[in-house]
């Protein structure tokens, strides 16, 4: 034991002297204070405690030493043949298993509270008890709520397609009557929102995301000036991917946009993570409906949500809400597509989730599963990268993502480095319209699906890629 300890000490000491020898060559002629600092950095580099100094404070020689260590660590990871994946914002198996009781829940009792046989056709807006339960999720009256199929994205696509081709207030109001049609897209944001716009030929304008939500100064100016702008995407609570919760002021300003924007302007309020808190003290979201009522803009906002990350991601229920006028128009449109939604699934969801208290307990069980994965990512990022100028990241209190910004111009490189050692990350650029991040800096991390062990391995590999890319880049620039 003692021999081993002495051997390790000698080994570390030997390596230190060796590295100091090389380093001394760089430092020759340096002033004693600087020399002492450089020696201390080199020593820490050798002892693997080196990454606490800000990248801007490192000389080319110090960067070169760090690069060598990082390259060794990276090569060692390459040898491990990792197969890790941080790309998917999906619930993990333990999470979906929380809702396994849905299977067989109805036990042959197919009658809804009002006597409707849910096995049969009809009921376009959904079962009353399902409307009541999910209206609670969106904090709106149940009469304004419509229950859809398993995907809220379908409802969102349908709403935009309807406004574009048929018009929210009759054919004269169809956005498609004039060209171009534009949408405001706060970014980093959700790639599937941007994909809907791109698919439907809607021009996207990127708007910066702040800690308080989208930059409202920019949005207010744009909607006043450009009446081709017909919509705004929002993920107001635990935004995808930044995790931010829109401030009350932002919510009110969004509710007022209808007063300044073009006719038929709508806000797509995708509250996909409305109740997906990781901590009890997670920030609350102000009610956009209350502000809309106050400002007379109920026709300008459509709200959406689903149980995709509450029960089964592939077999849940979706819901939406807007003004009576909008919902009546949309239902007329929907009636051409279906005689009615899957009420069997709605009823089993109502029987399973039962009431708001039970739903809250169910969400707490989700949080207990995924919180350690988030904490693992955040603790590793803090330990390995805090105050070193190689990246910044969000610290969400809920939702499914952590947003990481590399130094400008390095996101694609980091994703590629990670890919080469078997760690899959969401493609750089995916969080921006047209897949183009002007800074090439944002990377979305999704820690929910892999096991905790895999999250740990993946994020440790990720930080090595970030450091390697940052230091290589700095050295190249110094040349
Ligand atoms: N909106 C946001 C913001 C999301 O992150 C996701 C899932 N990644 C969805 C919608 C998808 O919702 P659904 O499963 O109801 O279609």
Structure description:
- This protein is of the alpha/beta class and about 475 residues long.
- Helices cover about 45% and strands about 10% of the residues.
- The protein has an 8-stranded mixed beta sheet with strand order 2-9-8-7-6-3-4-5, with helices on both faces.
- Strand 6 (about 230-235), helix 9 and strand 7 (about 265-270) form a beta-alpha-beta unit.
- Helix 2 packs parallel to helix 3 (about 60-80) and helix 8 (about 215-225) packs parallel to helix 9.
- The longest helix has 30 residues, at about 355-385.
- The two termini are about 45 Å apart.
- Mean pLDDT is about 90; it is low at about 1-30 and about 35-50.
- 4'-deoxy-4'-aminopyridoxal-5'-phosphate binds near residues 190, 306 and 318.
Mean pLDDT: 92
In spatial order, strands of the major sheet run 2-9-8-7-6-3-4-5
Strand content: 5-15%
What is the percent of helical residues?
40-55%
Q: How does CATH name the architecture of the largest domain?
A: 3-Layer(aba) Sandwich
Q: Class of the largest domain, according to the CATH hierarchy? A: Alpha Beta
Bound molecules: 4'-deoxy-4'-aminopyridoxal-5'-phosphate
CATH topology of the largest domain: Aspartate Aminotransferase, domain 2
**Helix/strand order:** HHHEHHEHEHEEHEHEHEEHHHEEHEEH
Number of strands: 13
Q: Tell me the overall shape.
A: globular
Q: What is the number of domains? A: 3
